[in-house]
Amino acid sequence: MPDAQLTEEGYLSFPPQDDYNWKEDGAEHPDIIEACKPIEDRYPPNAFRPKEQVSADDLRKLREYAECVRTNGLPAWPDPRSDGSFDLSGTALANGVPKDQMTKAIEACRSIWSGRIAINSGPGGGKK
Prior knowledge:
This protein has 128 residues and is mostly helical.
């Protein structure tokens, strides 16, 4: 495993080795993630990177974006959560979004929102 590196923000970063992506691999093993929850729950609140705050205006735009995505081919697309992310778990899109439909929706809705889109699609690490 390569040595950890410090980011500009002062956080440790572990570069992938041989194209191994531990986050993608973790999503394939929800039982392991679930088994680690009791450990994660003991972390102090400042153990995680602070999340960017979503402004009320951005949240309004993200709701409009969600409506646009639904209108343009993905009717199961949810409204954003209060943190601005889209939680696909429990929807028809939980097991994956067809790339061609997502591309079409992104292009159609770019005038409403062209920023970062955070998608949660099931079990994963990190505080919720």
